[in-house]
């Protein structure tokens, strides 16, 4: 009998490290699924919300300048090192990182992911997440603009009119999403990515963006202990 393991993936849609972790994990899943160990376990990814900057406005601030000021002491040299490093990491997994756009509030993006994850399942949620990441990090789109959210929904195969109605009602799904964010904080999560692989005997926790081979090793551990 195949053991079903949930991968609880806690993310924020404007965190470059969660995007990097997701791409590496997706590559690791492809490798694992083509291995004999995949006969013993099936992994299902479930997304959980976390806001790095819950007080950010929906209008947002210039992303490049915000990063330079808040994370790199307003140093152009340090910011250049960051963009060079992140670009190299991105190229390795097929991401063409761009560093313009806005740092803005992500609650509506999380609301969208959670609503359709519950309504339509993990594959739909995965497509929404992929689209949100692509738009934000490679096309410099606002993370909370209605057009960004609508494109993510339609990219996932969701009916356009239904998606427009959901996105337009900013209170639908909001209490549930906020509760999930509080629960994540209550579980001691204070940074993302935070990934938990559900094992038959024990769970495996991965904090930060690991290498592809590291994810593969953890998948193999879950498979080994599932027998």
UniProtKB/TrEMBL annotation:
Residue ranges of every copy of the DSBA-like thioredoxin domain listed in the record: 6-217
Pfam families for this protein: DSBA
The species this protein was found in: Stereocaulon virgatum
Protein name according to UniProt: DSBA-like thioredoxin domain-containing protein
Database matches in PANTHER family: DSBA-LIKE THIOREDOXIN DOMAIN-CONTAINING PROTEIN (PTHR13887:SF52), GLUTATHIONE S-TRANSFERASE KAPPA (PTHR13887)
